[in-house]
Write a structure and sequence with these properties.
This protein is mainly beta. Helices cover 3% and strands 25% of the residues. It has one domain. The strands form 3 sheets. The chain has a two-stranded antiparallel ribbon with strand order 1-4. A two-stranded antiparallel ribbon has the order 2-3. Strands 5-6 form a two-stranded antiparallel sheet.
């Protein structure tokens, strides 16, 4: 379960809009930040795969688990900043042109035992 708990009213330019069309103003700006609470439980232990266009900060409140980050932004072609470029055939990029090599995958444990390398924030 996820719930947005805060949205900054400050509106800023979106550096990676979904559409490159000048007539599309729908996502040319965005809120400066949002806070989202994800509740993972033993009966619902998995989050959802998602791609973040902006800097994000995760903070552990309680519990522990395994986390995986795919660093796609590190292997995106120069023409497709951050791996974003729209859908193929609509001014976008095919998957072969979007990436220059395989992405680095980072896996770690989130938890309270920082002495053993667990992370409280990431």
């Amino acid at each position: 379960m996820e719930q947005e708990t805060d949205r900054d009213p400050l509106i800023i330019p979106n550096p990676l809009p979904k559409s490159s069309s000048p007539s599309s103003q729908a996502d040319s700006t965005r809120n400066a930040s949002t806070t989202i609470h994800y509740l993972l439980t033993p009966s619902s232990p998995l989050g959802t795969w998602h791609r973040n266009k902006a800097r994000i900060i995760h903070t552990l409140h309680r519990g522990r688990g395994r986390y995986a980050i795919i660093h796609a932004d590190e292997v995106a072609s120069e023409e497709c900043v951050g791996g974003y470029g729209g859908d193929e055939g609509v001014g976008g990029f095919s998957e072969e042109k979007r990436w220059v090599k395989k992405a680095r995958i980072e896996v770690f444990t989130v938890g309270q035992d920082v002495v053993k390398g667990e992370k409280l924030q990431w």
